[in-house]
Amino acid sequence: MNVSLFDYELPDNLIAQTPLVNRSDSRLLLLDKKTGETHHEHFHNIISYLKKGDVLVLNDTKVIPARLIGEKEETGAVIELLLLKEVEENKWECLAKPAKRLRVGTIVSFGSGVLKAKVTEKKEEGITIVELQYKGILMEILEHLGTMPLPPYIHEKLCDQTRYQTVYAKNIGSAAAPTAGLHFTEELLQALEAKGIIITFVTLHVGLGTFRPVEVENIKDHHMHTEFYQMTAETASILNRAKKEGRRIIAVGTTSARTLEAIATKNNGVFKKEADETSIFIYPGYTFKAIDGLITNFHLPKSTLLMLVSALAGREQILSAYKEAVEEKYRFFSFGDAMFITDNIKK
After folding, report:
1. Nearest to 295 by CA among 13, 17, 47
2. In 10 A of CB 61, how many CB atoms?
């Protein structure tokens, strides 16, 4: 299956550079995964397309202000580090720019030495392992020195850093936001619960896979990086009951979908309390075991996330819906508009 099958044309002016003033004012394209039928809405009206007993599964990961600008101690050269995940105590996997200027033993200083990063290992695919040196609480230091790790296609400055967090972000550990969740407000979540829609959470810390394009021709040769996830016993119980009673499980975002599918695949369709890592790669031909629907943003051409939604709704139907979204001037990617993919879409 060639990666070129998942390409599409997107004008640069449709790549959203800033979030909307009101999160839930974004547009919503509804796609029936069985028929390919589409409808156009605004996100705050998603409540009309959900019914009592539906289970919405949200990813409560919290983004680390993980982008750091510092200087090499020996030369003063400017170095940018993007912390991806902690692999041992105070040892972090990161992306460095320019990576060629770093060698094992190099020390990069941030905030006049408040935080230092010593390079301990250079790995494949531009990964650098650093040991962080500091006094105090690391997350408090990062809140002061770091900025949100916005994707490279966003060129505008983010004035309010909280807009790259979901309103329910809780568990610190992501190098990128689970962006489908950015459309939800506290008021909308309360209205959904008042209608009898069940809201529950999983955690998946978004890592390197978000920043790495597919660089092979045959997508089956693509290697997914592992990401940490966890599910509580309470969430597992809610989901198992919903499955037993034939109620819909709807993932909010591809990160939630991958978590649910990883757990269901591992446990023969049953949800269990679990904390593990997954490298699950979902593309057309995959049989879904957990989810009945997906709320998601619009994804980059040739990306693994576009392949995931194509597995759910069919490649041709997805590309047709994307073409329609382009024609209707939807906003794309992290700060863009949303899709709701399920079957029997009706109010």
Report:
1. 47
2. 33
- Residue limits of CATH 2.40.10.240 in the chain: 67-145
Percentage of the chain beyond pLDDT 70 is 99
**Looking at the chain, which residues constitute the CATH 3.40.1780.10 domain(s)?**
3-63+161-342
For residues 206-223, average pLDDT? 87
Q: What is the largest CA-CA distance in the chain?
A: 64
Phi, psi of 180 (to 5 degrees): -60, -30
Architecture of domain 3-63+161-342: 3-Layer(aba) Sandwich (3.40)
Location of structure tokens 């998601």? 296
Q: How far apart are CA 212 and CA 208, in angstroms?
A: 6
The position carrying tokens 């959900």 is 50
Q: How many CB atoms lie within 10 A of CB 136?
A: 9
Q: What pLDDT, on the 0 to 100 scale, is given for residue 213?
A: 84
CA-nearest of 93, 89, 104, 85 to 174 is: 85
Cα four-point dihedral sign 163, 167, 171, 174 = negative
Q: Between the CA atoms of 178, 182, 186 and 191, what dihedral angle is there, to the nearest 10 degrees?
A: -100
Q: Are 182 and 19 in contact (CB under 8 A)?
A: yes
CB-based contact 293:313 (threshold 8 Å): no
Report residue 242 CA to chain centroid gap. 25
According to DSSP, the residues that pair with 218 across neighbouring strands are 2
The verdict on domain 67-145 having CATH code 2.40.10.240 is yes
